[in-house]
């Protein structure tokens, strides 16, 4: 029996999960390379982090409209909760140097303030 199914193609869509995993992998490689003096591993880790950031930004951009709509809906129903979530995300994002998490927190806080001010 022959298998005529087309070979599966790898997912080429940007992914937040894959981007985060790749970033952490790159950070570990870069750190290990730095600690051991293995420059090739350090360089590979840096390159992995760079491509992971590009993937994260692409995935973030691809979901921006749906995320904004969801945040606006939730903020209109529960502005205090969404504002608190936003504050927490900003703080955690700052602590772990994640600009995306900080930005999402700011978006939530802005949506909550807009509802409260209306």
Task: Report on this structure.
It contains five helices and no strands. The chain is mainly α and 118 residues long. Helix 3 crosses helix 4 (79-95). The longest helix has 24 residues, at 39-62.
Order of helices and strands: HHHHH
Low-confidence stretches: 5-9
Count of beta strands: 0
- Give the percentage of residues in beta strands: under 5%
Share of residues in helices: over 70%
Number of helices: 5
Biggest pleated sheet: none
Radius of gyration: 19 Å
| Cα distance spanning the termini | 67 Å
- What structural class is derived from the secondary structure elements? mainly alpha
**Overall shape:** elongated
Average pLDDT reading: 90
Summarize the structure.
The protein is mainly alpha-helical and 118 residues long. Helices cover 81% and strands 0% of the residues.
List strands and helices in order, with pairings.
Layout: H1 16-36, H2 39-62, H3 64-77, H4 79-95, H5 99-117
Helix pairs in contact: 1-2, 3-4, 3-5, 4-5
List keywords for this structure.
118 residues; mainly alpha; elongated
């Amino acid at each position: 029996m022959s298998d005529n199914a087309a070979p599966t193609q790898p997912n080429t869509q940007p992914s937040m999960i894959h981007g985060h995993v790749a970033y952490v992998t790159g950070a570990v490689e870069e750190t290990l390379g730095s600690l051991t003096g293995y420059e090739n591993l350090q360089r590979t880790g840096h390159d992995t982090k760079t491509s992971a950031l590009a993937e994260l930004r692409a995935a973030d951009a691809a979901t921006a409209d749906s995320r904004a709509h969801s945040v606006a809906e939730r903020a209109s129903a529960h502005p205090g909760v969404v504002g608190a979530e936003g504050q927490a995300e900003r703080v955690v994002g700052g602590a772990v140097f994640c600009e995306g998490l900080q930005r999402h927190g700011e978006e939530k806080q802005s949506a909550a303030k807009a509802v409260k001010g209306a």
